[in-house]
Amino acid sequence: MDYLIGGISFLAAFLFSLGGVGAAIILIPILVSFGIPINIAKPIGLFYNTVSLTGASINNIKNKRLDFKIGIPIIISSFLFAIMGAYVSQYIPKKIILILFIGFLLFSGLMFLFHKKKEQSTYRQGTPYFALTAIGSFAGLLSGMLGIGGGGIISPLMLMLGFNPKKITAITAFVVPFSSFSGFLTYWSMGSIDWKLLVIASVAGIGGATLGTIFMQKKLNPKAVKRILAIILLLMALKLIWNIL
Question: 194 with 64: CB under 8 angstroms?
């Protein structure tokens, strides 16, 4: 099973790095479907997000794709609220966590599938600090509770605010490692870590995300990528719904 998890981790990181979204959103339900307890799967997903998207962020910074003014408010709020979310998750029943996860998968998948891209001239300018802080806080809370990194909520909400999708991808890839790492440290302090699985998933994730970032630079069709991500998320949501019925 170790090789299978490694292969899935590589493929997930490759696909989701194309959209700047942490692949823990799909890795965690897959691990749960393999019989791994969700409280063990969540810190694996958070660390996996941290290492797989750090390389993408470094690449974006080197190529000056990152707007720090927009990213910083989201980083600070998501980092702090991810810690809160991880602690709160101890007191929430497993079934409720899975239902929240299903809702998250459905929301993200439908946003990727149906959100219409604005014309470039209508993209939002400026830095709405309050809205960005609210997005970061909400994403961080969910990140800690569900072990997902928050990228799947940051991207759709920033799209709704009217930001340029290319800018969103770079910002999300920059923010997710911070919120993921703070959540991971919190789970570590609570003792919920399977180090063997964590290393396997993370090493594969680094390779997949690095390759995905290279392909992103080759100008893959963004519409096709969004459709693929949406289909994966929606299928995973349906599988989890089937499991809890």
Answer: no
pTM score of the predicted model: 0.77
Q: Give dist(CA 51, CA 210) in Å, integer.
A: 10
Determine contact, residues 97/146, Cβ cutoff 8 Å.
yes
Angle CA 20–83–31, to nearest 5: 60
List pLDDT tens digits, range 179-202: 889 999 998 998 878 899 999 999
Closest CA to 210 of 17, 2, 49, 68: 17
What pLDDT score does 232 carry? 75
Are 47 and 176 within 8 A, CB to CB?
Answer: no
> Do 27 and 45 contact (CB within 8 A), yes or no?
yes
Around Cβ 58, how many Cβ atoms within 10 Å? 13
64: which 2 tokens?
């000056």
Domain ranges of the chain: 2-244
Q: HEC profile for 191-229?
A: CCCCHHHHHHHHHHHHHHHHHHHHHHHCCCCHHHHHHHH
